[in-house]
Design a protein that fits this description.
The protein is α/β, with parallel strands linked by helices and 155 residues long. Helices cover 30% and strands 23% of the residues. It has a single domain, classed as 3-Layer(aba) Sandwich (Glutaredoxin), CATH 3.40.30.10. A hairpin with a 5-residue loop joins strand 1 and strand 2. The protein is globular.
Length: 155
């Protein structure tokens, strides 16, 4: 099977976006510019596998923050019950709603429903996982990428 062709190339500055969070506020990707490295997680819906991955990210969040990182999760499910999900997950990072799929279509190739992107604090893409099924990268690997970025910024 052929790997999907990425929409964004390594080193490219990713597009900015503004989306509502499950908490009701508007979150801009650019808010984190020059402040935090980002693990951007794009999900088509909150399936059982996606839910479990969000819980894994929650468990590894302290380590991600230690490396000056932040997690932004974009959920493209149009009928998501946001309040119920926020109460069940209790994650410390923003969960953003992309009901119109405006953001996911700028990051993901057609027929690729989900992905994980590692961005440095200046929004340059360092690596990406384009996923046709929920084989999410281990949270430890995500944290390692953020650790390397944080180390490079401190040189």
């Amino acid at each position: 099977m052929n790997s999907p062709t990425p929409v964004l190339s390594q080193g490219a500055v990713v597009p900015n976006f503004t989306l509502p969070s499950l908490m009701g506020d508007m979150v801009k990707r650019s808010t984190y510019r020059a402040r935090k490295h980002l693990a951007l997680v794009l999900l088509p819906e909150v399936s059982r596998a996606a839910y479990d991955y969000l819980l894994e990210l929650r468990a590894g969040y302290a380590q991600i923050r230690e490396y000056d990182g932040e997690v932004l999760t974009v959920i493209a499910e149009p009928t998501l019950d946001a309040e119920e999900l926020a109460m069940r997950l209790e994650v410390p990072f923003p969960l953003l709603l992309d009901r119109e799929r405006a953001v996911v279509t700028r990051f993901l190739p057609e027929a690729v429903p989900m992905g994980v992107f590692i961005l440095d604090r200046y929004a340059a893409l360092h690596t990406q996982w384009l996923l046709t099924r929920p084989d999410f990268p281990p949270v430890a690997e995500v944290a390692d990428w953020l650790r390397v970025l944080d180390y490079q910024c401190k040189l």
